[in-house]
């Protein structure tokens, strides 16, 4: 999947996306794909009838992005690809917002901030993968065994010929004997 939007005029020359930060892969329905016009705010002009048409469109587009499941990764992609996001709303940002954010990233992470962010993402993915495949330690295995031993198992059925009589059974026998002695039991 790429960040291109159906219906949004594409740049006249081919601009390759920066593959260090790929556009997030998702099966979710994205509003910018189903309603691209909503995000092309530069195409919306204020009129006498509606002097705040663009402002209203911007609010709508930003609201749509705020509920998007991939907004965080979309923002990274949009910032890493200025040539492909010269216009429109991407991840609830305007062109001016994105320019400002890129300046802040350069100040914090240096000119190659895309490389730094891509490396951070790679390390994060690696850590997540490692957390899924690391085998349990000896201590973890020992603890798991202890836990299993502590789980009470179902007792074996009472064997009257092999095991001592329990206090409850003794009491029950006494009650039966007393009944027999009193002549109440047949
Ligand atoms: S955050 Fe906005 S621009 Fe980005 S994919 Fe989602 S709806 Fe589209």
Automatic annotation (TrEMBL):
<dbReference type="InterPro" id="IPR034768">
    <property type="entry name" value="4FE4S_WBL"/>
</dbReference>
<dbReference type="Pfam" id="PF02467">
    <property type="entry name" value="Whib"/>
</dbReference>
<protein>
    <submittedName>
        <fullName>WhiB family transcriptional regulator</fullName>
    </submittedName>
</protein>
<feature type="domain" description="4Fe-4S Wbl-type">
    <location>
        <begin position="31"/>
        <end position="100"/>
    </location>
</feature>
């Amino acid at each position: 999947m790429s960040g291109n939007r159906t219906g949004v005029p594409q740049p006249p020359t081919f601009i390759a996306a920066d593959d260090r930060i790929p556009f997030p892969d998702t099966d979710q329905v994205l509003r910018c794909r189903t309603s691209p016009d909503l995000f092309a705010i530069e195409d919306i002009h204020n009129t006498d009838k509606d002097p705040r048409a663009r402002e209203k469109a911007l609010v709508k587009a930003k609201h749509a992005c705020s509920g998007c499941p991939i907004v965080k990764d979309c923002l990274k992609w949009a910032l890493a690809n200025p040539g492909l996001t010269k216009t429109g709303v991407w991840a609830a940002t305007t062109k001016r917002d994105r320019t400002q954010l890129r300046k802040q990233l350069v100040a914090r992470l240096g000119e190659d901030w895309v490389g730094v962010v891509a490396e951070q993402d790679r390390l994060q993915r690696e850590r997540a993968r490692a957390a899924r495949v690391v085998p349990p330690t000896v201590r973890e295995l020992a603890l798991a065994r202890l836990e299993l031993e502590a789980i009470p198992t179902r007792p074996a059925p009472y064997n009257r010929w092999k095991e001592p009589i329990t206090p409850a059974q003794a009491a029950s026998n006494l009650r039966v004997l007393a009944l027999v002695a009193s002549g109440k039991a047949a």
